[in-house]
C-alpha cells in the first residue's frame, strides 16, 4: 500500500469516527429533550413506564394546595376527579400567574412515591386570557352624532 493511499485511509477512518460521534450526540440530545404529554389519568395508568420517561402533565392548581419555600414549591394538580401531587425544585421562581385555580403545565418525572417532580412549570390565569366583557359605557353610541 502506498503512502498516499494510507493517508486517505486514515483520513477516511477519522471522518467516519467523527460522523459517528456527532450522530451519537445528536441522538442522545433528542432523547433527553423529548417529553411525552399525558393526562393525570393516563399517568396513573402507565405503570412502570411512567418512571422512566420525561413527562408533561397539565391540570388546574387545587386551591389552598400551594406551599412555597424559596424557589421550591409543592402543589396539587386537578384534572376532572384525578389528583397529582407535584414538587417543583428549581433556581427559577414560579411564574407570577401561578396561583390557585390557574391552569398549569408541569414538566419533569414521576417518582415511585406517586409524586411528580417538576423541573419546569408554566401557568396561565384563565381570567387574564378570557375575552373582555362588554362594558355598557364603551359600547354606547357617541352622543355627539359623529
Class by alpha and beta content:
alpha+beta
What shape does the CA trace take?
A: elongated
Please tell me the overall pLDDT: 78
**Residue windows where pLDDT falls under 50 for at least 5 positions:** none
> Helix-strand pattern, N to C?
HEHEEEEEEHH
CATH homolog superfamily of the largest domain: Nucleic acid-binding proteins
CATH topology of the largest domain: OB fold (Dihydrolipoamide Acetyltransferase, E2P)
- Cα distance, first to last residue? 95 Å
What is the count of β-strands? 7
Radius of gyration, in Å, reads: 26 Å
The second-level CATH architecture of the largest domain is Beta Barrel
Total helical elements: 4
- CATH class bucket of the largest domain: Mainly Beta
Attribute tags:
4 helices; 7 strands; 146 residues; five-stranded mixed barrel; OB fold (Dihydrolipoamide Acetyltransferase, E2P); 31% helix; alpha+beta
Would you kindly provide a brief summary of this structure?
This protein is of the alpha+beta class. It has helices at 3-33, 40-45, 126-129, 136-139; strands at 36-38, 55-61, 67-69, 72-79, 82-88, 103-110, 115-124.
Amino acid at each position: 500500500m502506498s503512502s498516499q493511499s494510507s493517508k486517505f485511509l486514515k483520513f477516511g477512518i477519522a471522518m467516519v469516527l467523527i460522523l459517528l460521534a456527532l450522530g451519537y450526540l445528536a441522538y442522545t440530545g433528542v432523547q433527553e429533550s423529548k417529553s411525552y404529554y399525558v393526562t393525570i389519568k393516563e399517568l396513573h395508568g402507565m405503570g412502570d413506564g411512567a418512571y422512566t420517561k420525561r413527562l408533561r402533565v397539565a391540570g388546574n392548581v387545587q386551591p389552598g394546595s400551594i406551599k412555597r419555600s424559596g424557589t421550591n414549591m409543592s402543589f396539587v394538580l386537578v384534572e376532572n376527579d384525578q389528583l397529582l401531587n407535584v414538587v417543583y425544585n428549581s433556581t427559577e421562581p414560579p411564574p407570577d400567574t401561578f396561583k390557585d385555580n390557574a391552569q398549569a403545565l408541569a414538566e419533569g418525572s414521576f417518582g415511585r412515591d406517586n409524586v411528580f417532580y417538576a423541573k419546569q412549570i408554566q401557568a396561565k390565569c384563565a381570567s387574564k386570557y378570557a375575552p373582555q366583557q362588554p362594558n355598557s359605557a364603551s359600547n354606547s353610541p357617541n352622543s355627539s352624532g359623529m
